[in-house]
Amino acid sequence: MDERRTLAWHETLEMHELVAFQSNGLIRLKKMIREVKDPQLRQLYSVSIQAVEQNLRELLPFFPQAPHREDEEEERADNPFYSGDLLGFAKTSVRSYAIAITETATPQLRNVLVKQLNAAIQLHAQVYRYMYQHGYYPSYNLSELLKNDVRNANRALSMK
Fold first, then answer.
1. 1 lies in a domain?
2. What share of the chain is helix, strand, coil (3-state, %, to 5)?
3. How many whole angstroms separate alpha carbon 125 and alpha carbon 127?
4. What's residue 4's pLDDT?
5. What percent of the chain has pLDDT over 70?
6. Residue 141's pLDDT band (boundaries 50, 70, 90)?
7. Is residue 3 part of a domain?
8. What are the transmembrane regions (predicted)?
9. Which residues have CB under 8 Å from 133's CB, separation 6+?
10. How many percent of the chain have pLDDT more than 90?
11. 61 near 67, Cβ under 8 Å?
């Protein structure tokens, strides 16, 4: 295999999904750890925060190798985080329902899960449209999409 200077599109998009998911997760962990009183659970949060921070630090150096990346930073409000977190929740719900349906033998339960899967798909579409309309998820502009990932990951890493 030859050495490439840029990442392939498919691996760039997978990297985007991982960094976006982990950045939102890291922000959520850092906000929630303040509320955790149990020392053992607080330690688990701390270990999780350190692991995700390390993951992001290892992935961020690959962003300059992504196709058509621009280097521009800007500050934004919390709306991108909250909507991104909701989008991640909706996406995970869709996947979880789809998996559960494949494991369901009882027709009545299957019908309920299919109904709930369709509702999760609708929620995902609504949140996606909101994010796209507000410029939080520029899915047709890879450069902007990756720029958002870098900004969110750096924001998550800089939080105390």
1. no
2. 75, 0, 25
3. 6
4. 60
5. 91
6. confident
7. no
8. none
9. none
10. 48
11. no
Residue 153 located in a structural domain: yes
- Return the closest-CA partner of residue 148 out of 67, 102, 81, 95: 81
pLDDT tens-digit profile of 48-63?
999 989 989 999 999 8
The secondary element (H helix, E strand) that includes residue 135 is none
Domain extent at residue 44: 9-158
Helix (DSSP H) and strand (DSSP E) numbers for the chain: 5, 0
Ramachandran category for residue 135: left, alpha or beta (phi over 0 → left; psi -120 to 50 → alpha) = left
35-42: long-range pairs with CB below 8 Å, 24+: none
With beta carbons less than 8 A apart as the criterion, state whether 127 and 87 touch: yes
- Residues 77-114 pLDDT 10s: 678 888 888 898 899 989 999 999 999 999 999 999 99
C-beta of residue 15 within 8 angstroms of C-beta of residue 59:
yes
| 2 domain residue, yes or no | no
| DSSP conformational letter for 139 | T
User: Domain count of the chain?
Assistant: 1
Burial class (CB in 10 A: 0-12, 13-18, 19+), 102: exposed
Any idea which residue has 């030859």 for tokens? 2
